[in-house]
C-alpha cells in the first residue's frame, strides 16, 4: 500500500468509526498521532564554536559531547493507519473477548447466574452495561468476521 | 485459494461489519473501561484461586442472587443504593479478604481516592460500613488502577498514578492497561511502580505476567498472616 493509499484508507476508516458512534476512539487516535512517535536522538551538548574563534592549543577542546535525549517525530501514513486499525480492534474485538473471559470466569465459579451488571452512577443517562450468562452469538460472529477483515486489511498494508 | 478483495471492497465490508459488532453502549468511552475493570477483577480472583483461596460473592445488603452488580464509577463501599456485589476471598486459616470495584479509599494524608479494584481485609470493610467512612488504604493488600484506551496511552495517566501511589498505603498498587504506551512504561519503571500494559485476552504473556504478580501479593499475604 502506498502512502497515498494509507492516507485514503485512514480517512475512510475514521469516517466509518465516527459514523458508527465511535467518535471517542478517533479522538484518542488523533491525540496519539498529534503527540507523535517517541524516539531517542543523539545531539550535541553544546553549540559549535565557530572555527575562526578557536585558538588552537588554548582553552577547552572543540570536540563536542554527545548526549541522548527523547524527542518526538511524526508518524508515517502507514503507522497512522496501524494505530487506527489497532484502536478499532481494541474497542470492538477485544472488549468482546474480555466479556467472554468474564463470562467464562463466572460460569466456572457460580451455578445458575443470570447476568453481570456494570453500573456507573456518574452517567445516569447511560443504562448499565450487562454481560449476560449466555453469549450473544450474533455479536460474537460479527466480531469474528470484523477481526478477519481487519487481519485482511493488515495483510494488504 | 481465497481471492483477496480489493481495497475499496474491503473497506466497505469493514463498514458493514462494524454495526452488528459494536455493542450499543460502546459508543461511550466509559463502557470499555467498565468491561476492562470486570475483566481485571476476574484475573485477580483467578490468581487468588490459584494460590488456594475459596472465592464467594456477596451483595452489600445480603446474599447474592443470580445477578452480580459491580460499580464501575467511584462510590462508597457502604452504599446500599444498589445491590452492589463484592467477592470474598478466603484462604484457609487466614483473615477474610474482600475484592471491590470502583470504591473510595482514604490515603495517608486523609484524602479520599478512588480505587478501580481494591482487595482489603474484610474487618476493615465492616468498620467502613458500620461507620459510613471509606476504608483505609493501609488495610488493603492490593489496589489496581485500570485504564482502558483505544489508542494514545498518555504519560499523564502514569504521572497521576505515581501521585496516587504516594498517598495510598496499599501493600501493592498496580497500574493496568489494555494497550501499551512507551512513555508511561518508562516513567513507571523509573519510579519503580508495578505496572502491566497490554492486558487483553489475546495477549497471553501479559495476562499471565499480571496473574503471577497478583499471585505474589496473595503469597505475601499468606506469609504475613500465617500463624
Describe this structure in words.
The complex is a heterodimer of chains A (157) and B (227). Chain A contains 4 helices and 4 strands, in the order ααββαββα. Chain A has helices at residues 3-19, 23-35, 77-109, 137-156; strands spanning 37-44, 66-73, 115-119, 129-132. In chain A, the strands form 2 sheets. Chain A has a two-stranded antiparallel ribbon with strand order 1-2. In chain A, helix 1 crosses helix 3 and helix 2 (23-35) packs across helix 3 (77-109). Chain A starts with a helix and ends with a helix. Chain B has one domain. Helices cover 40% and strands 24% of the residues of chain B. Chain B has 6 helices and 9 strands. An 8-stranded mixed beta sheet of chain B has the order 2-1-4-5-6-7-8-9, sandwiched between helices. The model of chain B has no long low-confidence stretch (mean pLDDT 93). The interface between A and B is large, with 70 and 60 residues. Strand 3 (115-119) of chain A pairs parallel with strand 3 (67-71) of chain B, so a sheet runs across the interface.
Beta content of chain B: 15-25%
The shape of chain A is elongated
* Largest sheet geometry of chain B: 8 strands, mixed
Whole-number average pLDDT of chain A? 88
Beta-strand percentage range of chain A: 15-25%
Shape of chain B: globular
Rg of chain A (CA only): 26 Å
Question: Total strand count of chain A, please?
Answer: 4
* Total domain units of chain A: 1
Question: Which H/E pattern describes the elements of chain A?
Answer: HHEEHEEH
Major sheet strand order of chain A: 1-2
Unreliable sequence segments of chain A:
none
Overall pLDDT confidence of chain B: 93
User: Into which percent range does the helicity of residues of chain B fall?
Assistant: 40-55%
Class by SSE composition of chain B: alpha+beta
Instruction: Give the ordered list of helices and strands of chain B.
Output: HHEEEEEEHEHEHEH
Amino acid at each position: 500500500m502506498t502512502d497515498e493509499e494509507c492516507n485514503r484508507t485512514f480517512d475512510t476508516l475514521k469516517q466509518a468509526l465516527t459514523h458508527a458512534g465511535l467518535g471517542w476512539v478517533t479522538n484518542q487516535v488523533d491525540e496519539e498521532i498529534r503527540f507523535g512517535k517517541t524516539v531517542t536522538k543523539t545531539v550535541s551538548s553544546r553549540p559549535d564554536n565557530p572555527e575562526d574563534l578557536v585558538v588552537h592549543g588554548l582553552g577547552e577542546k572543540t570536540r563536542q559531547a554527545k548526549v541522548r535525549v527523547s524527542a518526538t517525530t511524526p508518524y508515517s501514513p502507514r503507522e497512522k493507519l496501524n494505530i487506527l486499525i489497532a484502536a478499532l480492534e481494541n474497542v470492538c474485538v477485544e472488549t468482546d473477548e474480555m466479556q467472554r473471559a468474564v463470562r467464562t470466569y463466572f460460569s466456572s465459579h457460580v451455578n445458575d447466574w443470570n447476568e453481570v451488571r456494570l453500573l456507573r452512577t456518574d452517567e445516569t443517562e447511560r443504562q448499565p452495561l450487562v454481560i449476560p450468562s449466555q453469549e450473544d452469538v450474533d455479536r460474537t460472529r460479527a466480531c469474528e468476521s470484523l477481526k478477519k477483515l481487519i487481519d485482511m486489511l493488515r495483510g494488504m498494508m | 485459494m481465497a481471492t483477496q478483495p480489493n481495497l475499496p471492497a474491503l473497506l466497505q465490508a469493514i463498514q458493514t461489519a462494524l454495526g452488528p459488532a459494536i455493542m450499543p453502549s460502546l459508543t461511550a468511552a466509559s463502557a470499555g473501561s467498565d468491561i476492562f475493570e470486570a475483566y481485571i477483577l476476574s484475573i485477580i480472583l483467578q490468581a487468588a484461586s490459584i494460590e488456594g483461596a475459596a472465592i464467594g460473592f456477596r451483595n452489600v445488603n445480603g446474599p447474592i442472587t443470580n445477578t452480580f452488580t459491580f460499580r464501575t464509577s467511584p462510590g462508597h463501599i457502604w452504599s446500599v443504593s444498589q445491590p452492589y456485589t463484592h467477592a470474598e476471598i478466603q484462604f484457609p486459616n487466614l483473615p477474610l479478604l474482600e475484592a471491590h470495584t470502583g470504591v473510595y479509599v482514604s490515603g495517608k494524608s486523609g484524602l479520599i481516592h478512588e480505587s478501580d479494584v481494591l482487595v482489603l481485609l474484610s474487618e476493615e470493610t465492616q468498620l467502613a460500613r458500620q461507620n459510613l467512612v471509606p476504608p483505609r488504604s493501609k488495610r488493603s493488600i492490593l489496589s489496581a488502577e485500570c485504564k482502558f484506551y483505544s489508542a494514545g496511552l498518555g504519560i499523564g495517566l502514569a504521572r497521576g498514578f505515581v501521585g496516587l501511589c504516594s498517598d495510598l498505603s496499599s501493600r501493592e498498587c498496580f497500574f493496568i492497561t489494555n494497550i501499551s504506551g512507551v512513555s508511561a512504561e518508562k516513567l513507571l519503571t523509573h519510579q519503580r511502580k508495578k505496572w502491566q500494559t497490554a492486558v487483553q485476552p489475546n495477549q497471553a504473556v501479559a495476562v499471565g505476567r499480571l496473574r503471577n504478580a497478583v499471585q505474589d501479593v496473595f503469597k505475601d499475604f499468606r506469609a504475613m498472616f500465617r500463624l
